[in-house]
Structures are given as structure tokens and as C-alpha cells.
Amino acid sequence: MAHNTVMAGLTPYRTKGGEPFSGGRSQFYIDNGYGTALAAGDPVLVDGNYVTRAANTTAGVSGVFAGCMYVDPVTKQVVTSTYFPAGLSSGGLLEGQLDVVAYVYNAEDLTFLAKTDAALAATAAGATHPVIYGTPSSLLKRSAALVDADAQADPALGILVQIRSFPNIAGTKPGDNPTVVEVALVAPKIV
Fold this sequence. Notes:
Blueprint lengths: L10 E5 L10 E5 L7 E2 L3 E5 L2 E4 L9 E9 L6 E4 L1 E2 L15 E6 L4 E6 L12 E5 L13 E2 L12 E6 L14 E6 L6
Antiparallel strand pairs: 1-10, 2-9, 3-8, 4-5, 4-6, 6-7, 6-9, 10-14, 11-12, 11-13, 13-14
């Protein structure tokens, strides 16, 4: 299966059984004034119906941030975005809530495409690797999360993903691009 849309961060790809991704996502909230920026592709934790950026696998990873919707505090217009600016507070009620609406890809059997910070050998399949966060791109505000090429097993030190395969990207043979991998979240926290 060719897939030529590898965005930054973790991009939904397919189910663990090999079925294509159907586009499903769940709705939660981001607390007004939450101090960390979120970009589509960032691993997140849902706790008490509120989304925060996931810090380590031990605490849990509920899914991957897909985007948000809020009332702009200045223009009072509804904004739909793949980026949540740090410290933003919604400027009015939206769907009966004053908090920012957040969308999360959180199916338990979902896999993602991700870029790595260095080429990986085919023997990396099955290994766990940490996700490295960065600053979202200044223009498109996409996630800067990458998979670290150095294997790691301690879930308390960061977000871990398991390398599942080297997918067929843009018509190439599997493994031709060793910096793009299919991953699954390690120990997802189901919400």
C-alpha cells in the first residue's frame, strides 16, 4: 500500500490488522489557559476528559492530537485548527463549553507513520523507541515530534512507540526510506 502523505509527528496510517485508517477521532477538551502548545501529530494524554501533551508512557498515552476548535478571544469567531497555541483561552461558549474542544485519534488498534531522526535498519522492527518533541513548525504549525533512532525501554523517560514496519512510501519498495516507519503506541491508555 503506497502512502505518500507523511506529515510531521505521528500521522494515522492503518489498523494493526492492516485495514486502512477510516478517519475516526474522539472529542475531548483542553483546559482554558493550558500552557503547552499542541500540534497535530503530538502524542497526548486524556485525563478526566481533558487533553494534555503526554510526558511519559508510564503515565499513559491516550492517542495523538488531531486538532481543536475554539472561539477566538479577540474576533469572537470560531476557529478550527490543527494547532493549539500555549496559554489560549476560548473567547466564548462552544457546544455548551467554555473550554477548547480537542480532537484525538485514539483507537486502540491504530498505527501511525512517523519520521525518525536517523536511518534505521530493518532489524529495528519490533523494538521500542522514544518520541522526541520539538517546536512546531512556524508556518504550518505541524508537530515536530520524531522517533529517536536510539532504542529505549524505560517508559518513565518519555513516550515510547514500537516500530512495526518500514512501509511502502510513494511507490518505493518497503524499507527504501529508512527514516519513515510505521509505529504503534506502547501501552496506550484507553479512554
